[in-house]
Design goal:
Nucleotidyltransferase, domain 5; homodimer; alpha/beta; binds adenosine-3'-5'-diphosphate
Chain lengths: 204, 204
């Protein structure tokens, strides 16, 4: 279990495998105002790869190749936000994707708590701290606490997916979940294009 | 311009062409309670084909073949509701589809009025009456006013689509619209499966 820290992009030749867990840290929730600061990734082996993004940076070729690679599944919790943040920063639309929050909504119908902390607690018995969630991710030097927090957000997503997939199959909702995942990149694009609060499918 | 009235299903051998406008009338807005009563269709030639559905009816083979035909585009205004109603009644999931309400949301950003009446008025200068919208569609014999109303809901959808497609292209939003249309059948399925009010893509 190690944290690998990089500036601007993933290093050349690093292959994180066929399923990559991803989470982003930004300056806030408005992608047009709040820049992307950190992208943390994991191949599911316990290691976290953390890329710091500079203010004004508009490209990250190795990262984007992975995001757009049709043979690599990108695993998120509430991917809508991260997909939009990275599309906004680099122009690369992430696909295909899996979102643990959507999967949770489709199987954990006995609760309305679909936060990452709730999921890891219930599904794999791990307590993650959310203490650094609101911190200055734009700082040039990130603290050890920040790095550990960033890592903790991606280290369990593979295991969560396994468990959620079992339950989706059990309840006969795998196909429904897949259709939602397929639409998610476009839902993120709609956020940036100007429909962030609109349920585009609603009657009114 | 004629209304053709049928019982239970479309007649054998009737081909409505590659783009079929469809609208349904039901006993109300709750598909688990309110049965499907009427399905009106048009090939875009000014004729309306109106199928009356019996209480308890669970199949309509000719209709369903068309609904599921991948080479026939099904054109709706707020298709989410109609797709769910027909899936619930007959088990056939309509695809591929086009929805004029969604297209309108994506191009008529200067208004929040995306009702069918607003669309026909603005885009093709036609006034349709909504007077029979709330009426007893479960009646054995439909009134002439009901039949004309039912027809009016499908006769203009082809023209609306033409105009909306021009504007989607002009604004560079064709691909976004297509992604929404592709997800729509599954959105309808989610309604029936128990997520009618949930924006499945929302944070909370
Ligand atoms: N409207 C919103 N409210 C709260 N969190 C939001 C949000 N929009 C996006 N997010 C992101 O969703 C993640 C939290 O999801 P959840 O509450 O389900 O655990 C947060 O990421 P981080 O955990 O990386 O900070 C946060 O940045
Ligand atoms: N929550 C809702 N409120 C109003 N209309 C709804 C609705 N859910 C579905 N509909 C359907 O959407 C259609 C109206 O759309 P709009 O308001 O955009 O013109 C109506 O069909 P009909 O026009 O066939 O009766 C109505 O049955």
């Amino acid at each position: 279990m190690a944290n690998h820290l990089y500036k601007n992009d993933l290093p050349d030749g690093l292959d994180l495998g066929p399923i990559v867990a991803i989470d982003c840290e930004t300056m806030g929730l408005n992608p047009h105002r709040d820049r992307l600061c950190v992208i943390q990734m994991s191949g599911g082996d316990g290691d976290a790869h953390i890329v710091q993004v500079e203010k004004g940076q508009t490209s990250a070729p190795n990262l984007c190749a992975m995001l757009e690679n049709p043979d690599v599944l990108k695993l998120f919790h509430f991917g809508r936000f991260d997909i939009a943040a990275m599309y906004n920063a680099f122009g690369a639309l992430t696909a295909p994707v899996y979102c643990t929050k959507i999967a949770s909504r489709l199987v954990r119908t006995y609760t309305d708590r679909h936060g990452l902390k709730n999921l890891t607690q219930e599904l794999i018995g791990v307590d993650i701290s959310k203490q650094q969630q609101m911190s200055d991710w734009g700082a040039e030097t990130l603290t050890a606490a920040q790095l550990d927090y960033a890592a903790s957000d991606v280290l369990h997503l593979h295991q969560l997916r396994e468990e959620l997939n079992k339950r989706l199959a059990r309840e006969g909702r795998t196909e429904m979940a897949q259709a939602c995942f397929d639409f998610l990149p476009m839902r993120a694009k709609l956020d940036l294009a100007g429909w962030p609060e609109t349920d585009i499918f609603a009657h009114s």
